[in-house]
Write a structure and sequence with these properties.
By secondary structure, the chain is α/β, with parallel strands linked by helices. The chain has 19 helices and 19 strands. The strands form five sheets. It has a five-stranded mixed sheet, with helices on both faces. The protein has a five-stranded mixed sheet with strand order 7-6-8-9-10. The structure holds 2-acetamido-2-deoxy-6-O-phosphono-alpha-D-glucopyranose (16G) and zinc ion (ZN).
């Protein structure tokens, strides 16, 4: 039939490169951009099928390789909820990406369509698939986007809509809004950010307001899309003294010596920053603006080391602020409906942050590395905050809890402390991107909370002191030989290795270490922390020896 002919015809355009084994991995397919045409085309097909499967809801396709080098690119799917592609479809993604001929590809698709009972090309009107495409600033993005479009359109009746250059979280947000029947353009995204930001600014307690001095924040845009979008947003932002560097317009290379991944891993000053910025509040985005970290250059520093405020510290700030609002409400809570606030971290979370959060009385749970795993666990709470140490995270509010808040907001007396607390929570739920972690909305929330508290970045940093830590990657013949528990804190395989790791850990005060296979690179990662940097380094090295 014509569907098969259409697929065969278009797939001839995109032969698979020899000898690359592709895997959807933690966050979509990634690799050298030159080798990705056929993959992107095929994910285009998948996304159209995903839309058909879910009653023609809009699906998102993002072309980005995030913090990886500029010559790389990648592709990932945003489900209609705005979250990551359902893990149930990942094996199919792997299969079609690796199909070696058009025939094999078509037969895999046929089989899958039958199994999933997806109705293609049925003559029912309004039943076609819709896929929204976005890409970051990588030069290879434009031609890859065309490949994705061809993939989408090769499924009969499917439409691909090019939304242009976007941050990853913008696309996720727009897809989510569209499927909720809300206004879903990029402008709507911006408007949502600045209205909820302004609302939170207006709710800052009066006592502080007159002496409120808004100090400058300098943002490192990683020479990617985030800095450009922040420039657009800035037009409508008051109450924020913002300087944006590394927008990519001044000749800098994407992610090279700049950006959240660089700053968080190396803990050194990114390009474009230096002694002139001593003690100033600075923030770094990653290449597609779904990660955010803060830092400052301490006066006493004679090296290029920065004081890093990572995802854990952002999480702690958010948790503290939300808890404060909930406490105000609970005082007044006659029905006794205490809300459940929980936080989700990964094994990489600094031990000092976990101690701090527990000491705040919070429910702390752990998830496997990768946004989809954290997101899932956070969604189990009324308010769930998740962050990876690398700066990816957000706050999820359950639908029921939001309805409860909105109802309370109507009942409570305007101007009362309770009313303000509820209004702040509602504004946070609007400001923060509920689809995925978002550096732009995260930045605005950090900034308004600091103003609310009247805190400097230094004061914020003092919430707790990070334990010294070290990360190493070890190249191994087969990273799949390492199998961990679901929270990645312990290795189940190779047999006996965990006992050996434990024996090393015991030698160090406050020692903690774990190994895990990377989901994005062919390596095993080692993480260690201890009471001194020397001890953390030494623990990491001895654990790495065990892996080799
Ligand atoms: C991906 C993940 C990130 C995770 C990282 C771990 C998403 C959107 N991104 O970048 O959350 O921290 O992989 O990489 O899920 P690794 O498995 O190589 O250590
Ligand atoms: Zn990213």
């Amino acid at each position: 039939e014509s569907q098969i002919a259409s697929l065969l015809k278009s797939s001839e355009l995109f032969p698979t490169p020899q000898s690359v084994k592709l895997s959807y991995g933690t966050a979509g397919f990634r690799g050298d951009a030159k080798l990705l045409d056929s993959t992107v085309y095929r994910v285009g097909i998948l996304s159209a099928l995903r839309s058909l499967k879910l009653g023609s809801s809009t699906v998102g396709l993002m072309i980005t390789a995030s913090h990886n080098k500029v010559s790389d690119n990648g592709i990932k799917v945003a489900d209609p909820s705005g979250g990551m592609l359902s893990q149930e479809w990942e094996p199919f993604a792997d299969q079609i990406a690796n199909a070696s001929s058009p025939r094999e590809l078509v037969s895999l698709i046929r089989e899958f369509v039958e199994k999933e009972e997806i109705a293609i090309g049925e003559e029912k009107k309004n039943k076609s698939a819709e896929v929204w495409l976005g890409r970051d600033t990588r030069p290879s993005g434009e031609s890859l986007l065309r490949a994705a479009e061809i993939g989408v359109s090769s499924i009969l009746g499917s439409v691909a809509i090019d939304k242009g250059i976007l941050t990853t979280p913008q696309l996720h947000w727009m897809v989510r809004a569209k499927n909720k029947g809300l206004k879903a353009t990029e402008n709507d995204y911006f408007e949502n950010l600045f209205t909820s930001f302004r609302c939170l600014i207006d709710l800052i307690p009066n006592s502080g307001k007159d002496k409120l001095e808004v100090s400058k924040v300098i943002v490192d845009g990683a020479n990617g899309v985030g800095g450009l979008k922040l420039e657009e947003l800035r037009e409508s932002l008051n109450n924020l003294d913002l300087e944006i560097r590394n927008t990519g317009r001044d000749g800098g290379v994407l992610n090279e010596g700049v950006g959240a991944d660089f700053v968080q891993k190396e803990k050194v000053v990114p390009l474009g920053f230096g002694s002139k910025d001593v003690e100033t509040r600075c923030a770094s985005f990653d290449g597609d603006a779904d990660r955010l970290v803060y830092f400052y250059i301490p006066t006493e520093s004679s090296t290029d080391k920065v004081e890093l405020l990572d995802g854990d510290k952002i999480l702690s700030l958010f948790a503290l602020f939300i808890k404060e609002q909930l406490n105000t409400l609970d005082d007044d809570d006659k029905e006794g409906t205490r809300s459940r606030l929980g936080v989700v971290q990964t094994a990489y979370a600094n031990g000092a942050s976990t101690d701090y959060l527990k000491q705040l009385g919070l429910d702390v749970v752990f998830a496997k590395t990768g946004v989809k795993h954290l997101h899932e666990k956070a969604a189990e709470f009324d308010i769930g905050i998740y962050f990876e140490a690398n700066g990816h995270g957000t706050i999820l509010f359950s639908e029921t809890f939001i309805s409860l808040l909105v109802a309370k907001q109507k009942d409570l007396t305007q101007g009362s402390e309770e009313h303000k607390a509820v209004s702040r929570l509602v504004a946070v739920s609007n400001l923060i991107n509920q689809a995925v972690g978002d550096a732009l909305s995260g930045l605005l929330l950090v900034e308004v909370i600091l103003q609310h508290m009247g805190w400097s970045v230094q004061k914020w940093n003092e919430l707790y002191k990070d334990l010294p830590s070290r990360q190493i990657k070890v190249e191994v013949p087969d990273r799949a030989a390492v199998v961990t528990t679901s929270e990645e804190t312990e290795a189940l395989k190779p047999l006996g290795i965990q006992d050996a790791i434990n024996a090393e850990i015991k030698k160090y005060p406050r020692g903690r270490a774990f190994i895990r296979p990377s989901g994005t690179e062919d390596v095993v990662r080692v993480y260690a922390e201890a009471s001194t940097q020397e001890a953390a380094d030494s623990l990491a090295n001895s654990v790495a020896q065990l892996v080799k």
